[in-house]
Amino acid sequence: MDESIVVNTYANAASSQAIGLELVSRQSLAKWAELNLNFNLYHSAIDGNNVSPGLTNERTSYWVKVNLVNKLPGNFTVQVTGDYQSRRALEVGSGERGGSMGMGGGGGMGGGGWGGANNTVQGYVEPMYSIDLSVRKEFGKNRNLALGFTISDALRTRVSDIHSESPFFVQDTFRRRDPQLWRFNLSWKFGKLDSTLFRRKNTRNNSEGGEM
């Protein structure tokens, strides 16, 4: 009886390239509300010919991040951050979300095997979205005492869903890299910041530059 054995492992592709456009916008909606937008559009190409002849992957992807800051009465600040990543083969872009221009943990057989970037040359990473929430309350006459509460991935949607296929198999890998986190933070600012120190330093540097 003929038997076939398929070995599933990880391998680094020969190279990866990406070209794209990143747009950032900051808008003041009101005295109490500010909106920050980040949009990243890119085309990526991964060359895996070193793993198997003709193994390449090209894809156009995008990433959107929205940050809304609301300053409410009573020295409360509420912040909502949401982001969406389209279907992609290579993570590229802002370091805030761990994007990587290189091949990460393994671009050959599904990508990102041991906590690296979710890069794959044999398929794609399904779209992903998530929302973070935070509330901050400042106390005291000078608002030098602050209590904060943050919940990351409020909807528990920040997961990695990778689709890979070859003439021998079709594989879907689902994993959650980071758990949902709840954080409390208490901070106290003491002392007095003298902003004139920075102005004096800049003036001195400018005068020394003029003498040169």
Question: Helices, strands, pairings?
Answer:
Blueprint: E1 15-30, E2 33-47, E3 56-72, E4 76-85, E5 123-125, E6 128-139, E7 145-152, E8 160-165, E9 170-175, E10 181-188, H1 196-211
Antiparallel strand pairs: 1-2, 2-3, 3-4, 4-6, 5-8, 6-7, 7-10, 8-9
Short description:
A hairpin with a 3-residue loop joins strand 3 (56-72) and strand 4 (76-85). The longest helix is centred in the last third of the chain and has 16 residues, at 196-211.
Helix content: under 10%
Given the helix and strand composition, which structural class is it? mainly beta
Strand content: over 45%
Determine the N-to-C terminus distance.
Answer: 86 Å
Q: Any idea what the shape is?
A: elongated
> Roughly how many Å is the radius of gyration?
24 Å
- In DSSP terms (H or I, runs of 4 or more residues), the helix count works out at 1
The main β sheet shows up as: 7 strands, antiparallel
Strand ordering within the main sheet: 1-2-3-4-6-7-10
Please, what is the average pLDDT?
80
User: Stretches where pLDDT falls below 50 for ≥5 residues?
Assistant: 94-115
Note the run of SSEs as H and E. Answer: EEEEEEEEEEH
Strand tally is: 10
How would you describe the overall organization of this protein?
The chain is mainly beta. The chain is 8% helix and 48% strand. It contains one helix and ten strands. The strands form two sheets. The chain has a seven-stranded antiparallel beta sheet with strand order 1-2-3-4-6-7-10, with no helix packed on it. β2 and β3 form a beta hairpin. The longest helix has 16 residues. About 10% of the residues have low confidence.
